[in-house]
Design goal:
Elements: H1 2-29, H2 36-44, H3 58-67, H4 80-91, E1 101-105, H5 126-132, H6 148-152, E2 158-160, E3 167-169, H7 179-183, E4 189-193, E5 200-203, H8 211-217, H9 227-231, E6 237-240, E7 243-246, H10 256-260, E8 266-269, H11 288-299
Antiparallel strand pairs: 1-4, 2-3, 5-8, 6-7
Helix pairs in contact: 2-3, 2-4
Length: about 300
């Protein structure tokens, strides 16, 4: 009995030593060297693994930063300029600063302005809906309202508004990772520059139909009237067929285009309300001659004839 136990222990010990030798040989044979800078860069990245940088994760992006001679075109949208400065200090390479961006929804066709003409009873995802049919309204370009963009947002920067059926973007939480842009099958979400006060002016419509057809499908659709293009002092409005587009780089936020838009399809966000000019009240004119005459009569006493 004792010998059996001893033999079993020796056998297991021998197998363990043999397996350890094999693992050691294999680890040395197939060892892959990893630059320690990759771990250093990975530590300063935000670990969001959102894919906004174009890489599948932060570790892959760190490898790309370390192995690339020129990293001026590489950028982490979540970490922003602060993180890229730390990467530059670690690697000794120059990085390009970029203005922060934020996602905007180029559609305002809610339930109150875009009536439904059909009812879809299939799986409720935007990607499936876009492949199966054109949508529950006559607008073939607007939001499908199934929330694919909200589902892929890892930063709770979006939610679905039950009253309008449209997604709402919380600018303060948006990290400009671009996941919602990629998830939208209608391409109605765009990344636009974010200034200090987050002031934006953009056309909230992508309907390329002619004016009458677009207006019938949605009350706030762009009808291609070109009034915004004509009044813009900086040529920031570009007409592409029946649709207007406002260039965020050229736009000076003067809001003249907002005032002339007949369908209110141009959206202005975070602007203070304009001051309403009070009409001037004209003072009643005083008859100077009558006043002088009255004052003279009060001074000179009347005499009997």
């Amino acid at each position: 009995m004792t010998n059996s136990i001893l033999y079993s222990v020796l056998l297991l010990a021998s197998l363990g030593i043999f397996a350890a030798i094999i693992l050691y040989v294999v680890s040395k044979k197939f060892y892959v060297y990893e630059d320690p800078l990759i771990a250093d860069v990975d530590d300063v990245l935000p670990a969001a693994n959102c894919g906004g940088c174009g890489s599948p994760g932060c570790k892959a992006f760190a490898q790309k930063l370390v192995n690339s001679d020129d990293i001026s075109e590489l950028f982490c949208p979540v970490g922003g300029n602060d993180v890229m400065k730390l990467v530059s200090e670690i690697l000794g390479k120059e990085v390009a600063e970029k203005d922060p961006t934020v996602a905007v929804l180029l559609c305002q066709g809610g339930c109150d302005v875009r009536p439904k003409t059909t009812i879809y009873q299939g799986p409720r995802t935007c990607s499936i809906s876009a492949m199966v049919y054109g949508g529950e309204t006559d607008c073939q370009y607007g939001c499908l309202g199934d929330g694919d963009c909200v589902a892929v947002c890892d930063f709770d920067a979006m939610y679905m508004d039950e009253s309008t059926g449209l997604p709402v973007i919380i600018s303060d939480k948006c990290t400009s990772c671009g996941a919602c842009v990629k998830a939208c099958p209608r391409d109605i979400i765009e990344m636009r520059p974010k200034n200090k006060r987050d002031l934006k002016i953009f056309v909230g419509c992508l309907n390329e139909d002619k004016g009458g057809i677009a207006k019938k499908a949605c009350d706030v659709a762009c009808i291609g009237c070109s009034k915004c293009e004509d009044i813009c002092p900086k040529d920031a409005v570009i007409m592409t067929g029946n649709l207007a587009y406002i260039d965020p780089v050229l736009c000076t936020l003067c809001r003249k285009c907002v005032e002339v838009c007949p369908t209110h399809s141009i959206i202005e966000t975070n602007f203070p309300p304009k001051k309403v000019k009070k009409p001037k009240v004209e003072k009643p004119k005083v008859e100077k001659v009558a006043v002088v005459k009255e004052s003279v009569e009060s001074v000179i006493p009347k005499t009997d004839a």
